[in-house]
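Figure 6 in text form: structure in, sequence out.
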């Protein structure tokens, strides 16, 4: 089952979607990232692997791959997602 993550913090206009994409690729994950009108970023991940999901979230928080990102992620909300993976920044 796919997962929906909502990233809170300084996440728009700071290369966050690129950051999510590059982090996901390094972990073998596929999905999308989209800016939402409320200033958050929605990430849809096509995975049911909770270990890989947790590794992705941890990597977003500490940036172990030194990927260009000028913002900060304060919290991540996680929920199950039913539907097609869609979004303006696909990876």
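Output sequence:
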């Amino acid at each position: 089952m796919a997962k929906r993550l909502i990233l809170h913090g300084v996440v728009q206009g700071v290369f966050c979607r690129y950051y999510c994409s590059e982090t996901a690729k390094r972990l073998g994950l596929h999905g999308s990232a989209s800016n939402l009108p409320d200033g958050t970023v929605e990430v849809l991940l096509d995975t049911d692997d909770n270990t890989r999901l947790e590794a992705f979230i941890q990597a977003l928080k500490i940036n172990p791959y030194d990927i260009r990102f000028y913002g900060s992620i304060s919290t991540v909300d996680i929920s199950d997602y039913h539907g097609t993976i869609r979004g303006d920044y696909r990876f």
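Caption detail: The domain at 2-80 is CATH 3.30.70.100 (Alpha-Beta Plaits).
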